[in-house]
Amino acid sequence: MVNEISSGPDLLNTRLVHLATLAALSSVSAGASACADLTMAPGGIVVQVTDGDTVVLNDGRIIRMIGTQAPKLSLGRDDVADWPQAEESKQALTAMVMSKPVQLGFGGERRDRHGRVLAHVFVDTPEGMVWAQQAMVSTGLARVYSFPDNRKCLDLLFAAEGRARLSGLGIWSDPYYSIRTADMPAALLDRVGHYELVEGRILLAESRSGRVYLNFGRSWKQDFTAVVEAPALRLFAEAGLDPLVLDGAYVRIRGWVDDRDGPRIEITHPEQIEVLATR
């Protein structure tokens, strides 16, 4: 809990997290209704906060706060280390939602393969409804993380993330979460298995074998590539978008880095690509 009695740096850190949370509450309560493209449903009382993007309600439902990714805690797993600022993220969410009534907003698939409920969480406060995802992203204690079957209200979360990143809040002050550059493939190979934001100019966008390859270098076996598979191309088409027009564009790609003929990220839906400049 963020109001535990502590001393020294821990007390200062706890107070800073609490102040950041209060700032988020005051700044987003009026804007929470802006995420209107959701199907609302009753929630319950939050009785447990697992980490910065997962809570448990009094009826036993585990809620994965869709649209965001907070720094992960090991949660007792020997093969997993805490990500930087994971505890700060958990403390901030705890201060925001613990023992409070919440409502749930659905904008896509409602459960994942682990049985968790996939929802946007809205906290009932005396000042009005607070959108928990936006509050966490606004303070830099979570980042945008989307899925092809859950894509509502992402534009508002991207805007909140951009402001937090420009201000160096939370995770954006830590090199662990730095935006990577596409023209440094060796460094990206060191991040295989990590979720990353990668910026660079697309040297060539081409269609081959039912896929679109966004090439960021001349050597497709060594340089960074973003690959748009066929199911994702259907989502692009439904949205009236064509990834081939990104030839020459300066973009930000987000996703999990793997190593298949050099570092690459698979694109499963359009929101993984942010166009920063067309030429």
Describe the structure.
The protein has helices at 8-28, 86-97, 132-138, 154-166, 185-189, 230-238, and strands spanning 39-51, 54-57, 62-65, 67-69, 101-106, 117-125, 128-131, 143-145, 180-181, 195-201, 204-208, 211-215, 225-228, 250-259, 263-267, 273-277. The protein is α+β, with helices and mostly antiparallel strands and 279 residues long. It has two domains: 8-173, OB fold (Dihydrolipoamide Acetyltransferase, E2P) (Beta Barrel); 179-277, Beta Barrel (OB fold (Dihydrolipoamide Acetyltransferase, E2P)), CATH 2.40.50. The N and C termini lie far apart (48 Å). The relative contact order is 0.12. Mean pLDDT is 88; it is low at 1-32.
**In what range is the share of β-strand residues?**
25-35%
The main pleated sheet reads as: 8 strands, mixed
Mean pLDDT score: 88
> What oligomeric assembly is this protein in?
single chain
**How far apart are the termini?**
48 Å
Order of helices and strands, N to C?
HEEEEHEEEHEHEHEEEEHEEE
Coarse morphology: globular
How many helical elements?
6
What do we call the CATH topology of the largest domain? OB fold (Dihydrolipoamide Acetyltransferase, E2P)
Q: How many distinct domains?
A: 2
> Which structural class fits the helix and strand makeup?
alpha+beta
Instruction: Give the CATH architecture of the largest domain.
Output: Beta Barrel
Low-confidence stretches: 1-32
Q: How much helical structure, as a percent, in the residues?
A: 10-25%
